[in-house]
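Run log // design_07
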C-alpha cells in the first residue's frame, strides 16, 4: 500500500487507542510478558486455537514469529497487534490476516485474551478500534471471523460488535488438532458507514 511505503512497514502501522485499551505492533521487548501470559493461559486458549508447536512460547519461536509478522506487513498480507491496558500490561492480541485485495478487499480477524484478563470488556473495546483501522486506513470493505459453534464468548463478542452470522462452514479449520465446523461471521464497511 502506498500509505506504508515511505516508512518501514512496522513503523508505519499506527498505535490504535480506544476505551481503556491500546493496540500496537508486537516487539521483541514484549517477549517476557507475552510468553508468561500465553503459558499461564495455555489450558484456556488451546480448545480454541491451532495446536501449539512444542516450542511455541520459546524466545526463538517468538523471534521467528516477529520476522514473519514483518514479512507479512511488508507484503500487506497481515497486521498483528498486541493489546495493552493503560497501565502497560499486555492482555491479549488481535490479528488482521489473509488480506485479499483485487475484487475481494477482505481480511480475516483473529483474537485471544490472557485468561485472567478475559471478561473485562477489553476485546470489545479492541474490536471497536480495529474496524475503523481496517475500513479507513487499510481501505478494506469486509472483515471475516470464524468461531466454533460452542464458543459462547466469541459469538457474543462478534454479535455485540456488529458482526453478522453468514453461515456454517464444514470442517473449516483445524483447531485443537481436529478439523472442526465453524460459524462464519462478517462485518462490512457498509454495516458501519452505510
Ligand atoms: C473470546 C475472547 C477473545 C473474548 O474476549 P473478552 O475480552 O473476554 O471479551 P469481552 O469481555 O469484551 O466480552 C464480550 C462479550 O462476551 C461475553 N462473554 C465473555 N466470556 C463469556 C463466556 N465465557 N460465555 C458467555 N459469554 C461470555 C461478555 O459478557 C460480553 O458480553 P456482554 O457485554 O453482553 O456481557 C476471550 O474470551 C478469549 O480469548 N477466549 C479464548 C480464546 C478464543 O476463544 N479465541 C477466539 C477464537 S474464535
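design_07 sequence
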Amino acid at each position: 500500500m502506498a500509505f506504508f511505503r515511505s516508512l518501514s512497514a512496522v513503523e508505519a502501522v499506527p498505535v490504535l487507542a480506544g476505551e481503556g485499551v491500546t493496540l500496537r505492533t508486537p516487539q521483541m521487548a514484549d517477549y517476557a510478558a507475552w510468553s508468561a501470559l500465553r503459558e499461564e493461559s495455555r489450558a484456556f486458549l488451546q480448545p480454541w486455537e491451532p495446536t501449539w508447536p512444542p516450542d511455541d512460547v520459546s524466545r526463538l519461536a517468538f523471534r521467528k514469529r516477529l520476522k514473519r509478522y514483518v514479512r507479512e506487513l511488508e507484503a500487506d498480507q497481515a497486521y498483528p497487534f498486541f493489546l495493552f491496558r493503560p497501565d502497560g500490561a499486555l492482555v491479549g492480541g488481535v490479528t488482521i490476516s489473509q488480506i485479499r485485495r483485487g475484487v475481494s478487499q477482505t481480511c480475516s480477524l483473529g483474537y485471544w485474551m490472557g485468561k485472567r484478563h478475559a471478561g473485562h470488556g477489553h476485546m470489545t473495546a479492541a474490536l471497536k478500534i480495529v474496524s475503523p483501522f481496517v475500513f479507513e486506513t487499510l481501505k478494506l470493505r469486509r472483515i471475516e471471523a470464524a468461531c466454533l459453534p460452542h464458543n459462547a464468548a466469541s459469538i457474543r463478542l462478534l454479535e455485540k460488535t456488529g458482526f453478522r452470522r453468514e453461515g456454517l462452514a464444514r470442517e473449516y479449520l483445524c483447531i485443537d488438532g481436529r478439523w472442526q465446523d465453524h460459524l462464519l461471521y462478517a462485518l462490512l464497511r457498509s454495516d458501519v458507514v452505510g
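Residues 44-45, 48, 111-113, 118-124, 147, 151-154, 156-157, 160 surround coenzyme A (CB under 6 Å).
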